[in-house]
């Protein structure tokens, strides 16, 4: 049995109250276990953009680590499945649960990889797991006033892999925000179908001025149908492919370059664009902020192997 266990939680834990862009000096972490015992935890890795942190603490044989895997497919079946968001009260350790489903909706928070569920949680649920009826780990919950965003397991696993390989999460800046067609307004979908009846791909919602995406010729309203020759069906797939490409490029000490097939409904045209991704320091990345909570991690099913 390993001498330490890893606990996945929110990076809100390590942010300063007055300036959330800064790291808390001399941070002391206490982990409350299900038996109400408090143990000392040590921060291992964190990432501001995805608001995740991994805390290490002593292993306890009576607690079993969750087997987090990427077998969950974000398809139509998952969007119809019943899900449960889990959290614990800070002081009492009382377990809380809320049921719901995944929505075809884009999060308003500044992290486009986030997905949305109808599970209603309080701020005590930040960093807690979202699971399905079979106990499969679907993602990690965050809090917003009118919705419950979560970071899907596919992205979390890639972040953890980057922690192990590079010591940080490597996610190149492209300067564009994309969305799945099913999550877009009906008027947008109708306009695309008029120009490209059989089109598939992801919709470009935003392009930053002077960004790699803008320099490649991509504009708001375009449709990206393939990335490096792989047909795109949803935004989640796009984000996962970006992670994989960044990992391969850094291992080979190469630039992070993407070739995408672009369809432009406004004039029924199409072209191949080359995007030169830029790696930026974590502290300069866009990140979504959440209300700070107590410096306690409630032990849920967030420990993993």
UniProtKB/TrEMBL annotation:
Pfam families: PDZ (PF00595), Trypsin_2 (PF13365)
Origin: domain of life: Eukaryota
Protein name: PDZ domain-containing protein
Domain PDZ: 174-257
Membrane-crossing residue ranges in chain numbering: none
Annotated PROSITE patterns: PDZ
């Amino acid at each position: 049995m390993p001498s330490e266990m890893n606990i996945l939680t929110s990076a809100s834990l390590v942010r300063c109250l007055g300036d959330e862009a800064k790291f808390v000096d001399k941070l002391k972490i206490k982990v409350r276990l299900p038996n109400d015992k408090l143990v000392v935890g040590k921060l291992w890795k964190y990432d501001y953009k995805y608001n995740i942190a991994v805390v290490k603490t002593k292993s306890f044989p009576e607690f079993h680590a969750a087997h987090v895997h990427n077998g969950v497919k974000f398809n139509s079946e998952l969007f119809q499945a019943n899900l449960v968001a889990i959290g614990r009260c800070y002081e009492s350790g009382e377990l809380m649960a809320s049921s719901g489903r995944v929505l075809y909706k884009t999060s308003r928070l500044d992290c486009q990889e986030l997905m949305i569920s109808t599970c209603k949680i309080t701020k005590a649920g930040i960093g807690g797991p979202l699971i399905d009826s079979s106990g499969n780990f679907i993602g990690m919950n965050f809090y917003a006033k009118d919705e419950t965003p979560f970071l899907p397991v596919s992205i979390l696993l890639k972040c953890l892999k980057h922690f192990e390989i590079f010591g940080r999460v490597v996610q190149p800046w492209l300067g564009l925000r994309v969305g799945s067609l099913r999550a877009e307004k009906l008027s947008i979908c109708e306009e695309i179908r008029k120009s490209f009846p059989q089109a598939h791909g992801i919709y470009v919602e935003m392009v930053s001025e002077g960004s790699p995406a803008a320099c490649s010729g991509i504009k708001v309203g375009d449709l990206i149908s393939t990335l490096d020759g792989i047909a795109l069906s949803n935004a989640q797939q796009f984000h996962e492919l970006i992670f994989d490409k960044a990992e391969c490029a850094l291992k080979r000490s190469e630039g992070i370059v993407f070739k995408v097939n672009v369809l432009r409904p406004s004039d029924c045209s199409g072209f191949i664009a080359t995007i030169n991704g830029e790696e930026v320091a974590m502290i300069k990345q866009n990140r979504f902020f959440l209300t700070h909570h107590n410096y306690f991690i409630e032990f849920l099913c967030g420990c993993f192997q």
